[in-house]
Amino acid sequence: MSADSKRIVVTGAAGFLGSHLCDRFVEEGHDVIGIDNLLTGNLANIDHLLPQSNFQFCHHDVSTFVHVPGPIDYILHFASPASPIDYLQLPIQTLKVSSLGTHNLLGFAKSKRARILVASTSEVYGDPLEHPQTEDYWGNVNPVGPRGVYDEAKRFQEALTMAYHNVHDIETRIVRIFNTYGPRMRLNDGRALPAFARQALEGEDITVFGDGSQTRSFCYVDDLMEGIHRLLLSDCSDPVNIGNPDEVTIKDFAEEVVALAGSQSRIIFKPLPVDDPRQRRPDISRARELLGWEPQVPRSEGLERTMDYFRSLGAVADD
Ligand code: UDP
Questions:
Q1: 239 in a structural domain
Q2: Where residue 22 sits, what CATH number does that domain have?
Q3: Using omega within 30 degrees of 0 as the cis cutoff, is the peptide bond preceding 132 cis?
Q4: Does residue 315 carry a pLDDT above 60?
Q5: Any domain includes 308
Q6: Is residue 205 part of a domain?
Q7: Percent of the chain at pLDDT above 90?
Q8: Fewer CB within a 10 Å sphere, N or C end of the chain?
Q9: Do the domain assignments include residue 210?
Q10: By alpha-carbon position, which residue is closest to atom 23 of ligand 1?
Q11: CB under 6 Å to ligand 1: residues?
Q12: Residues 6+ apart with CB under 8 A from 220
């Protein structure tokens, strides 16, 4: 192992984003310890890493005490149910992993004198009254609504991370992740892209919620990984938005997916979920300035790669 190779802990290692992070660090020759309790993660996402000598998997729930022997350089906390239907079904686990789990990992970082990067979210902005969202916007979150379990846990996570930085002088990083897509999303996780993709590939009706005029801004996973990597290596302890500012209405997005799938599916409208944000677009000035980062993959290309992945899952059936 070379002198600049690091020992890195990734939580949520078997999840969509966690597994991509593990890939990147393993490829770079670092020693990676992936932790996951497999609540919403899937070992298939990291099967290919298990034989690698610089990858280790640990089946553990980070909401309980975390210990890894030996020195650790970096910790990336990516464990959490992250799609609305998941955290609606798992409200308490969602609250715990970003509160108790973050507390455990900050304590772990302190004991190892390690740098820790926590995965926060555009959900800290709630249903935003300012548009686009800069890091200075404080958000509009309903704490007792169905999404509150995720949003408030992530807001608490940010507060606790800042407190550890200020009180214990821990090196901390906070990434606010906007909607991200790409291979390894679960087809049945209920989010817009996998839902539309499955429906389009199976010739079912496409379920757009509300009138489809709400907006999101979708970032391809490779771009996100690059942004996170740069943030980790930067010295910025303030939150940084990482996302793609290319905003689209959900109805237009559904039409793009149907066209790409070459499908005959038609769009139908279903009730809008409670507290579904009306609009969302990152202001990425801070990431541009501090990290020299901006997304490179246009949605047409990212969607094509992701549809190829969904097709490769086969009959699409029961992921
Ligand atoms: N959505 C939809 N149909 C679906 C799933 C989601 O119209 O089958 C909408 C959802 O109401 C929201 C947007 O797509 O307005 C993005 O939803 P997603 O669950 O992907 O993520 P969110 O940004 O809401 O966390």
A1: yes
A2: 3.40.50.720
A3: yes
A4: no
A5: no
A6: no
A7: 97
A8: N
A9: no
A10: 179
A11: 83-84, 179, 191-192, 195, 207-209, 214, 216, 250, 273, 276
A12: 180, 181, 182, 244, 295, 297, 299, 301, 302, 305, 306
